[in-house]
Amino acid sequence: MTKNTIVTYLPDTLDILTQQYSDLAEPPVINAISTKTQEEHGLKELCDATIIIANPSTPYMSKKKLKTYANVKFVQFTSVGYNKIDTDAATELGILVANNPGWNSVTVAEHTLMLMLMILKKVEYGQNKYRTSGWTMPEVFGFWNQARDLNAKTVGIVGYGSIGRELSKRLNAFNVNVLYYKRNKLSSEEEESLGVQYRDFSSLLGESDIVSLHTPLTDETRNLINLETIKMMKEGALIINTARQEVVDETAVAEALDSGILGGYGTDRLKTKRVDGRSFLDSQLVDMDNVVFTQGGGVTKESRATANVQYMENVRRFLNGKDPIYLVNKPSKPER
């Protein structure tokens, strides 16, 4: 029997992985490569691997690449998203693919709520004024007239999975009217227990003071927020995007903010560019006063610990000959 070999794109977890599987009768060989060095000296390791542990920074695994990785049987993502692999090709080649859902639901929900409050309370604007020019009394009164409460607002959640549910729990404490949109409507009993009401997508946009996005990135959701969908929204409404950057057409959002159609935009997902292995913001939204952006809000010390436990246990299942959970594909032919 060929010994299992794991390749991870998270070099800092190498020691943890080694320790995690040291108790197995046949501990796997574990190699770590980085995104930056893959093309330089990672190809052999990938070709020898039976398991790849991938993350959102992993270079896209196309059908051509997957054919090159001739021994790979299982790809485990450490993230909820798994758009860095051609799942159809993986299915065709008999490669199992699993994601890592739910580990950061609370973290993202908290971050989303923070972005809402930062925009409503004009936190960044007020902070910058104190740090630079200070205030005159007329400016103070003008600021007070612009700052708003979350209380009694209508918040529409687009994509009501585990993150949407955690967010709605927290919004209920603010006396907010919570609407949601998802493909499969909840039962009346579930809606009542969660304190939410279903709306179709266009109705949700039209009724919401704040629209919060929590959808995966698919062909259907790419540029979900665009010029046409923004026109369906209330004048002065806010958009919060803690899903994927590509779910939003940033040019359309910039135009709507500039014209006053939108009142604000909060996100941890602005367009970036890579230069010498580092990411830099490359978005026209960066310098707009009614935009609040932060680092990626989905990872904290606590949530990463949860993520590690969850995906490492799933890899253990595979190593022990059990079917992994959280599979996003079902190869029709046996594993190669």
What are the secondary-structure elements, in order, as H or E? EHEHEHEHEHHHEHEHEHEHEHEEEEH
The CATH superfamily of the largest domain is known as NAD(P)-binding Rossmann-like Domain
Output the radius of gyration. 22 Å
How much of the sequence lies in strands comes to 15-25%
According to CATH, what is the topology of the largest domain? Rossmann fold
CA-based shape: elongated
Largest sheet: 7 strands, parallel
Portion of residues within helices: 25-40%
Strand order of the largest sheet: 8-7-6-9-10-11-14
Tell me the total number of β-strands: 14
Low-confidence segments: none
Overall mean confidence score, pLDDT? 92
Please state the structural category. Answer: alpha/beta
Q: What is the annotated CATH architecture of the largest domain?
A: 3-Layer(aba) Sandwich
Gap from first CA to last CA? 14 Å
Domain count: the total is: 2
Features:
single chain; 336 residues; alpha/beta; Rossmann fold; 2 domains; seven-stranded parallel β-sheet; five-stranded parallel β-sheet; 13 helices; elongated
Concise overview:
The protein has 336 residues and is an alpha/beta fold. The chain has helices at residues 14-20, 38-48, 63-68, 87-92, 105-120, 123-131, 137-146, 162-172, 188-194, 201-207, 227-231, 250-259, 301-319; strands at residues 5-8, 29-32, 51-54, 74-77, 96-98, 154-158, 177-181, 196-198, 210-213, 237-241, 262-267, 272-275, 278-281, 291-293. Helix content is 37%, strand content 17%.
